[in-house]
Amino acid sequence: MGLVLTYDLVAKRIDHSLLGPTLTDHDLEEGCKLATKYRVASVCIKPYGVPLAARLLAGSGVAVGTTIGFPHGGHATAVKVFEAQKAMDDGASELDMVINIGQAIGGSWDAVASDIAAVTRAAHQRGALVKVIFENCYLTDEQKVKLCQICGEVRADYVKTSTGYGSGGATHEDLILMRKSAPPHVKLKAAGGVRTLDGAIAVVELGCDRFGASKTAAILDELRSRLEM
């Protein structure tokens, strides 16, 4: 893509991940402070931690994100919508929702589309973004393409490769396929496996507007060193 490597090119594409099941309240607080220090795009924090993140990140320029229907996507649509509303009430402006994976595998496309549309509609009514998580490790290429088309039709903001908790994460092949299959108004997020600066640069070059990372400090420290900042 011929991108000029700058700090913001990478940092402002990072959703700093604070989703690990063993992370304590102290860990979440320190993660929010790290996100502010490194000026990333957002944190993606466990749902109960959204009020904490909203308080700590107020005025920082770092957005508050959280998960919906995480990690398996099997929640009833009404529950996902309620979860989205609660997250926004608590201060989230970005929602990473998991599709109903089993329904996608089973070809129940109307149900899948309705599920995504309901959360997207609820989010957009309040100015929030929706990133739709596919969990590609369980899907065929045809299913991934279909999901990209659905996300375009219901005006979701992003298509996203994975939760980071399935049997596989983002692959370059999937990112190329998703960028090709999603319409231009739908952005692309990689999640799962972006742990180094070179890995981050690679997914940016493949068209990712965001990527999830838990190794944020290591990635951006190396970037600063490389840029001699």
Summary of the model, kept short:
Helices cover 47% and strands 16% of the residues. By secondary structure, it is of the alpha/beta class.
Structure description:
The chain is 47% helix and 16% strand. The radius of gyration is 16 Å and the shape is globular. Strands 1-2-3-4-5-6-7-8 form an 8-stranded parallel β-barrel, surrounded by 7 helices. The model has no long low-confidence stretch (mean pLDDT 97). With 229 residues, the chain is α/β, with parallel strands linked by helices. The chain starts with 6 loop residues before the first helix and ends with a helix.
Tell me, briefly, the overall form. Answer: globular
Percent of residues in helical segments? Answer: 40-55%
Number of H- or I-type helical stretches? 10
Structural class based on helices, strands and sheet pairing: alpha/beta
What is the CATH architecture term? Answer: Alpha-Beta Barrel
Which homologous superfamily in CATH is the superfamily? Aldolase class I
* Mean pLDDT, all residues: 97
Helices and strands, with pairings:
Layout: H1 7-11, E1 14-18, H2 25-38, E2 42-45, H3 50-57, E3 63-68, H4 77-90, E4 94-98, H5 101-106, H6 109-124, E5 129-133, H7 141-153, E6 158-160, H8 172-181, E7 187-190, H9 197-205, E8 210-213, H10 216-227
Parallel strand pairs: 1-2, 1-8, 2-3, 3-4, 4-5, 5-6, 6-7, 7-8
Helix pairs in contact: 2-3, 4-6, 7-8
Sum up the structure in keywords.
single chain; 229 residues; alpha/beta; TIM Barrel; eight-stranded parallel beta barrel; 10 helices; 8 strands; 47% helix; 16% strand; globular
